[in-house]
Amino acid sequence: MINTFITSFKLKNTYRVNSIIYSIKGIPIIKKILPDSLYENSGLKALATVISMLWELISTFLGKFLYISVMIYAVSNLYETNITYTFLHMFTFLTLIGGLLNTYMFNPTKDKYYAIVIMNINASKYALSNYYYFLLKILIGFMPFTIIFGLLAKVPIWLCILMPLFVISVKLIVTCKNIYSYKKTGITVNENTPVKLEWLLIFILLLISYILPIIGITINKLIFVIIFAITLILGIISFIKIKSFNDYKKMYKQILTSKNMTIQIKNKNIQKENVTNKITYDSDYTSKKIGFAYFHELFVKRHSKILTKAVRNQSIIILSILIVVILLTLFIPEIREKTNNLMLTFLPYFTFIMYCLNRGTTLTQAMFMNCDHSMLTYRVYKTPKVILGMFKERLKTLITFNLLPAFIIGAGLTLLLYITGGTDNILNYFVLFTSIISMSIFFSIHYLVMYYLLQPYNVNTELKNTTYSIVQGITYLVCYYFMQLRLPTVPFGIAIIIFTIIYSSISLMLVYKLAPKTFKIRL
Fold first, then answer.
1. Residue-wise burial string across 49-58, b where 16 or more C-beta atoms lie within 10 A, e elsewhere
2. Residues 6 or more apart in contact with residue 185 via CB below 8 angstroms
3. Quick check: helix, strand or coil at residue 463?
């Protein structure tokens, strides 16, 4: 089994190293310097191997650190309840969600496909050895942060040490449940596509995690220990069942060769087929506009299901959350003052929220998949006048779609500020609302500018531009950094509004001057 793991690890590392070299070669300035024989360069391969090993190390700890520090410890400090109990409460129920969403065993990935299907490595040894490694990474990755942040939350150290074991036990139970389901029905599950019942359970667990502490309901240390003991016993039983299961080859062949297989090209074809099925071909659709404005309006009308459904769902969820929060502030006086203070200092946090809500990626992908990948074969479509005209029309559409959830958030926060005690500076109301709208507009522009200046897709809608991924990563990191800031609403909000105006002006100029060269299909 150890030899099988070493072989699979080498395979995974080789794939990762080649991906790193490909990404390096995709950076505009560097790709002109580096030759195609780059993959044979032993020095660069050694560097890529070091980067790969560092990434393996970082992936073991970074996600766990962010999860414990932001989603549990930081949020626990916002409640009036006992921080120790709140920390344990959130950790318990969010761990249950994690068990449902990430078991590793039922995640169909390329390395599993290459190892089991193509190289015919022993499926049982491969599955178990890599699963044990997955559990070991959980133990090593979680332990320092459950101890550090647990102690900060005044959780006894012996409970902090038990927490990673609780996570492992939950993973084992869910994995065993999925194996039992396969043995009973002959159908494997795909953890990347949870069924509706699982989504409902996840939603309920989220509400329990974050809403119950608002009204003062949390589990205590005794309840956590009882839950842990039950889970540990079931986890040990599950471990034995998982180890004794001997039909991994048949199970994985079903996962890795069925519609669940996530080989990128096939996945994109499925995605394209799903998008195509949502297009409305109606001869009654028409437009009073002319030229490419007419062309774009027909595109929007035919793709309205793709473009509006997610925005509508977002708006309903956001509105529901705001109504619940408003009712809580009305009926629970203790949280009014804290909510009021949050409204006056928490605006940077919403930079990340608006980043997550923006539909720019979905819209640009739909544009490429069902329009641009064909239109870019025509030279007239890449002239500055046409590019700028289409950019303006698309920008209006994207801003319009993103404004609905932004308007609800902006209006809801302004109302929350008013009903929780208000403010002496009336400018806070205006800036709070306007800055949220500005954030929405900025991200709409930003995604579209990225698309036109760094067009990342090839004909199969695969992401082939490293620079695009780098810019996406930087955008994420900047937005995440803003989550940590606590700044007065007025100066931060005004800065956001001014920045959006400047960015909008510069982006139009850049698109006009550079997009005729950059807006093309990637090879």
1. eebbeeeeee
2. none
3. strand
Q: Which of 7-11, 83-87, 276-280 comes out lowest in average pLDDT?
A: 276-280
- Please check whether residues 216 and 68 belong to one and the same domain: yes
Rounded to the nearest 10°, the torsion over CA 363, 403, 277, 453 is -10
In terms of Cβ atoms closer than 10 Å to its own Cβ (0-12, 13-18, 19+), residue 33 is: exposed
**Is residue 238 situated within a structural domain?**
yes
Query: What average pLDDT does range 370-399 have in this prediction?
Result: 80
Q: Which of 245, 262, 279 marks a domain boundary? A: 262
Same domain, 451 and 317: yes
Mean pLDDT of 450-477: 79
User: Are 242 and 378 part of one and the same domain?
Assistant: no
The SS3 assignment for 447 reads helix
pLDDT for res 135: 92
Q: Are residues 183 and 305 in the same domain?
A: no
| 390 Cβ contact partners less than 8 Å away, ≥ 6 residues apart | 292, 296
Eight-class DSSP state of 216: T
Q: What angle do the packed helices 384-419 and 291-302 form, to 10 degrees?
A: 50
In a domain, 399, yes or no: yes
Residue 155's SS3 state is coil
**In 3D, which of 192, 194, 224, 262 has the Cα closest to residue 87?**
224
Whole-angstrom distance, CA of residue 171 vs CA of residue 169? 5
If you write DSSP's letter for every residue of 49-109 in order, what string do you get?
A: HHHHHHHHHHHHHHHHHHIIIIIIIIHHTTSSS-HHHHHHHHHHHHHHHHHHH--STT---
The residue range of the domain holding 472 is 290-518
9-13, 56-60, 426-430, 486-490: least confident range: 9-13
Identity of the residue numbered 469:
S
CA dist., res. 305 & res. 419, Å (int): 37
pLDDT of residue 76: 86
Task: Tell me the percentage of the chain whose pLDDT exceeds 70.
Answer: 82
Q: Is 10 exposed, middle or buried (0-12, 13-18, 19+ CB in 10 A)?
A: exposed
How does residue 501 score in pLDDT terms, banded at 50, 70 and 90?
very high
- Tens of pLDDT, residue by residue over 169-213, are 999 999 999 898 888 888 887 777 777 788 888 888 888 888 888
Contact 391, 296 (CB under 8 A): no
The verdict on 240 and 356 lying in the same domain is: no
Specify the amino acid at residue 278. K
Q: Per the structure, how many domains does the chain have? A: 2
